[in-house]
Amino acid sequence: MTYKVAALYQFVSLPDFRDLKSPLEHLCADLGLKGSILLAHEGINGTIAGAPEAIDSFVAECRTGPLFQRRLDNLELKFSTAAEMPFRRLKVRLKKEIVTLGHEATDPTERVGTYVAVEDWNKLLEEPDLVLVDTRNQFEVEMGTFEGAIDPGIGRFSEFRDFVARELDPRTHKKVAMFCTGGIRCEKASSFMLSQGFEEVYHLKGGILKYLEAVPEAESRWAGDCFVFDERIALAHGLVERASPREENAGE
C-alpha cells in the first residue's frame, strides 16, 4: 500500500480550538490516520498520513464539513506519498501558537507579506537588491537550501526574532524574501517583519515542498534535499523520498 501524506496549515481565528480537539481526534481515528496536528487560537498546522481516500475525506471535512464550519476555506495543502506509514501514532495537541515565535505583535490572521507563487520565485531571486532568508533551523538548512540564501543559524524558530534584530535593518534591507518547508514559518516571519518596520517582504507560497513539486529539476534554484518532520527524513524534486526512516522529530 502507498500512503498519502498531507501537510496542511491555515492561519485563521479559532477561538473554539479547545473544543475541536476531541472531534478531530475521533475523525482521524475513524479514518485510520496517523500524524500530528496542532490547534491554537491562530489556526491549524499538521502533517498526517493514511490511505489516499481517507486523506481526501479528511480534507473534505476540514473544508466543507460541520467541524470547522467552513473556516478552513484557504487551507494550504501539500501532498506526497510514502512507501511505509511515516508516523507511529496520532497526536492532536493544543498550543498557544501553531508555530512558536513568541511575539505578541505578530498576527498572521491580520497581515502577512506578499505571497510569491512557485512559478514566479526564480524570477524574484534574480533581483540584485534582494535579501534572501531561509527561516528554518540550521540542521535543515545544512541538508539543502536555495542558492545565495542567508542561514540565520537558529536552533528553533523563536530565535528568528533575535536574528532579525541582529542582522537585518529596515532602513538598509529594503526588499526581503523568505522561505521555509511548507510556508507556515515564513508566513509568520513575514508578519513579524512587517511589525518591525520592514515594508517590502515576500515569502514563497506553499514553501519548498510546493516548489519541489512544481518546478522541473532542470529549472530549479534549489540545492540539496528538503528535510521533513516524519520518518521519511528528506524529500527531493518531485517530492520523492530520499533517505531511510528514523525517529520522528518535533516541527518547531
TrEMBL record:
<feature type="domain" description="Rhodanese">
    <location>
        <begin position="126"/>
        <end position="220"/>
    </location>
</feature>
<keyword id="KW-0560">Oxidoreductase</keyword>
<dbReference type="GO" id="GO:0016740">
    <property type="term" value="F:transferase activity"/>
</dbReference>
<comment type="function">
    <text>Catalyzes oxygen-dependent 5-hydroxyuridine (ho5U) modification at position 34 in tRNAs.</text>
</comment>
<dbReference type="InterPro" id="IPR036873">
    <property type="entry name" value="Rhodanese-like_dom_sf"/>
</dbReference>
<dbReference type="InterPro" id="IPR040503">
    <property type="entry name" value="TRHO_N"/>
</dbReference>
<dbReference type="GO" id="GO:0006400">
    <property type="term" value="P:tRNA modification"/>
</dbReference>
<dbReference type="InterPro" id="IPR001763">
    <property type="entry name" value="Rhodanese-like_dom"/>
</dbReference>
<dbReference type="InterPro" id="IPR020936">
    <property type="entry name" value="TrhO"/>
</dbReference>
<dbReference type="GO" id="GO:0016705">
    <property type="term" value="F:oxidoreductase activity, acting on paired donors, with incorporation or reduction of molecular oxygen"/>
</dbReference>
<comment type="similarity">
    <text>Belongs to the TrhO family.</text>
</comment>
<dbReference type="Pfam" id="PF00581">
    <property type="entry name" value="Rhodanese"/>
</dbReference>
<keyword id="KW-0819">tRNA processing</keyword>
<dbReference type="Pfam" id="PF17773">
    <property type="entry name" value="UPF0176_N"/>
</dbReference>
<keyword id="KW-0808">Transferase</keyword>
<protein>
    <recommendedName>
        <fullName>tRNA uridine(34) hydroxylase</fullName>
        <ecNumber>1.14.-.-</ecNumber>
    </recommendedName>
</protein>
